[in-house]
Fold:
Amino acid sequence: MYTQSLDQQGSKTEHAADAETAEQLAAFQKRVDAEEKIEPKDWMPSAYRRTLIRQIAQHAHSEIIGMQPEGNWLTRAPTLRRKSILLAKVQDEAGHGLYLYSAAETLGISRQQMVAELLSGKAKYSSIFNYPTLSWADIGAIGWLVDGAAIMNQIPLCRCSYGPYARAMVRVCKEESFHQRQGYEIMLDLCRGSDAQKEMAQDALNRWWWPSLMMFGPGDAESTHSAQSMAWKIKRFSNDELRQKFVDATVPQAEFLGLRMPDDDLKLDEASGHYNFGEINWQEFYDVLAGNGPCNKQRMRVRRAAQDNGAWVREAAEAYAQKQAAREAA
Ligand SMILES: [Fe+2]
Ligand SMILES: [Fe+2]
Structure:
């Protein structure tokens, strides 16, 4: 997922607004309303372009940073089977990041600039990846809940009005579905195991449940750019609608595991068929976004070190490309 609708922090200035005529805007909206895909070379409002760059870059950064909490358990996975599955999953997340950087590049931003904005702290990534993975059960909880929330958010993005983003999401969603199942399978094994294993699963659920609900971003009343994103068909459902869908889908899965959701207010509303749930601690969400979550500093430190340690690879690739070009020109 991991777009989290953080785009309300975006710039309010509409640089090119006066250069965009009412006719252009109306014609664009007409195409969107007709469910036509907008492609990179098509005319688009500058605010549409900026919103997408911000959202896709945030999404890409989240995939890349999101490798860290699980990477932490690659060397300690309990069996060879679990290790190879987790390795494949973490590699998928790297792939998602790369597709998404490519999709954002079609809007006229370079990958270098996006990476620089991540490393400087200017660009955001999903708050969920600033929580620690303390036990093996956390790997189960992440797959089940975090990838589960990602699917809820990303399936509608397959119908996003911007073609390259929508197309990237098709494959990403198929892979997320595998991620969700591998996480649920870990939870299922633990819940069928010893008391200590079941307790470990319950503890992981207790710690990951609320941050997973925060992944959908602020409530609709606080989400100021949502209406415009819906009109442009970048978003198809509001944050609260997606969060409700996620709760409704996930509570029966917890019941099947024999685990208890850490929410005393959680209750099925027979009339609507939806689960009512307790108040989300939005202060925690904004604190984590502001850089004060349990692992924010560590995540950025590791990412910066990876960038520095990879410098020689980038330099070597560039030197090789130059050599090839020179050989072809000769
Ligand atoms: Fe992913
Ligand atoms: Fe995933």
Summary: The longest helix spans residues 163-191. The pocket of fe (ii) ion (ligand 1) is lined by residues 63, 93, 96, 172, 176 (CB under 6 Å). The radius of gyration is 21 Å.
